[in-house]
Amino acid sequence: MFYRPADGHPLPHNPFNAIVAPRPIAWIGTRGALGDNLAPYSFFNAVAYTPPQVVFGSTSAKADRDGTKDTLSQIREGGVFSINLVAPEDLAAMNASSAPLPAGADEFIHAGVAKAECETIDCPRVATAPATLECRLVQVITLLGEANFLVHGEVTGIHIRPDCLKDGRFEPPARLTRLGYRDYALIEQLFTLDRPPGG
């Protein structure tokens, strides 16, 4: 089949976010005048090594956050955020933290997530995450469409859970990924591939 997104599609669910998959999940912690916030975002990836940089997409808005969501509103306010990887055992908590709670509600408490402080920024992080990236905001780019934004951050600190380091490599027991729709997957089998000379 072929369709033009501007014209819609004949399927019962939009296939776009299931096509670009699997995607890592950024479980983002923020702090603002109303308190702490935690929410998952699956339009997320790393984009540069030196300095290390990440981006994530914020889409849609809440009525109590002036054209965006709690996460982006608080990042604009404080200029920092933490990106926590989601351990498989935290799947239910991650899902619970996606609830559209009122501005000022603490999803760490709502979802029963252990909270810790970051080292380089004034921001909460998930204490049990396999890894956490402490980030300073570089820029927010307005994207096409209503309430679509790209958030660009520089990584200023990295936490790695000790059991996720093996022989000097970051190797968590499994990686939770988003596949689109309501589908998720665990990546548990790895293989290595040598690049061509000079690659």
Automatic annotation (TrEMBL):
SMART domains: Flavin_Reduct (SM00903). Residues 18-172 form the Flavin reductase like domain. Signal peptide: none annotated. Coiled coil: none annotated. One of its GO terms (molecular function) is oxidoreductase activity, acting on the CH-NH group of donors, NAD or NADP as acceptor. InterPro entries: Flavin_Rdtase-like_dom, Split_barrel_FMN-bd. It holds the Pfam family Flavin_Reduct. Transmembrane segments: none annotated. This is Flavin reductase. It comes from Pseudothioclava arenosa. The lineage of its organism: Bacteria, Pseudomonadati, Pseudomonadota, Alphaproteobacteria, Rhodobacterales.
